[in-house]
Design goal:
This protein has 88 residues and is an all-alpha fold. The chain has one domain. 56% of the residues lie in helices and 0% in strands. The chain contains 4 helices and no strands. The longest helix is centred in the last third of the chain and has 21 residues. It is globular, with a radius of gyration of 15 Å.
C-alpha cells in the first residue's frame, strides 16, 4: 500500500495585502500577531518584511483581499497586542 501524496496550492496575496501586513509589523505589531490572518504563517510574514526592507516586495493578483479581510487582519493583530500588554 502506498499513501497518496496530498497536493496543495500555494496561497497568493496581493501587493496591497502584503504592504498592509508589513506596515502593521513596522508599526510595532509582532510578526506572529500580524500573521494570524487566515492562511498566513509567521515565516511568510517575516519574508514579506525582509523583502520590503530590501525593496523587493511583490504581489500576485490571483487572491484578491477585500477591505474587510484587511480590517479583520488589522483588528486581530491589535487584539493580540492589547492582550499581550494586559498580561504583562
Amino acid at each position: 500500500m502506498t499513501k497518496a501524496k496530498a497536493t496543495s496550492t500555494r496561497a497568493r496575496y496581493t501587493l496591497e495585502f502584503k504592504r498592509e501586513a508589513v506596515r502593521l509589523v513596522e508599526g510595532g505589531q509582532s510578526i506572529a500577531a500580524v500573521a494570524q490572518s487566515p492562511g498566513v504563517v509567521s515565516q511568510t510574514q517575516f519574508n514579506w518584511v525582509k523583502a520590503q526592507r530590501q525593496g523587493k516586495l511583490t504581489g500576485a493578483d490571483s487572491k484578491p483581499v477585500s477591505a474587510e479581510q484587511m480590517e479583520i487582519s488589522r483588528l486581530r493583530a491589535e487584539l493580540a497586542r492589547v492582550t499581550r500588554a494586559a498580561v504583562s
